Amino acid sequence: MTATMLFQYTVILYCAIWMYFGMEEKLRSLSLSMRKLHKQLFKTLVLQIVSPTISLFIPDFFIIYLPFLDLEIDLPTGIFLCAFTIYPAMDAIIVMCVVADYKKAAKSNN
């Protein structure tokens, strides 16, 4: 499982770096507003990759690998379960907070 996760994150990092440099080259031909939008969408994509890592895989990592350390500790499993269930909401909140048009629309509806 660890090897699979490392492989996946290596591919994700490689593709993100490759896409960032490729995007910088192609964005020069676009207008300023389109450049801002594309950069916001790229930030959204990166945050949407990081959020499941924090809310799904890190708690999963602790649940799977802590028994191998043979420690006598009491973990509050409710926190881990909350982390698992918060991911779908985090995904939508990231888009609404990072993309300026969505943020503006969300603020105007209140």
UniProtKB/TrEMBL annotation:
<dbReference type="Pfam" id="PF10326">
    <property type="entry name" value="7TM_GPCR_Str"/>
</dbReference>
<feature type="transmembrane region" description="Helical">
    <location>
        <begin position="44"/>
        <end position="66"/>
    </location>
</feature>
<feature type="transmembrane region" description="Helical">
    <location>
        <begin position="78"/>
        <end position="100"/>
    </location>
</feature>
<keyword id="KW-0812">Transmembrane</keyword>
<keyword id="KW-0472">Membrane</keyword>
<feature type="transmembrane region" description="Helical">
    <location>
        <begin position="6"/>
        <end position="23"/>
    </location>
</feature>
<dbReference type="InterPro" id="IPR019428">
    <property type="entry name" value="7TM_GPCR_serpentine_rcpt_Str"/>
</dbReference>
<keyword id="KW-1133">Transmembrane helix</keyword>
<protein>
    <recommendedName>
        <fullName>7TM GPCR serpentine receptor class x (Srx) domain-containing protein</fullName>
    </recommendedName>
</protein>
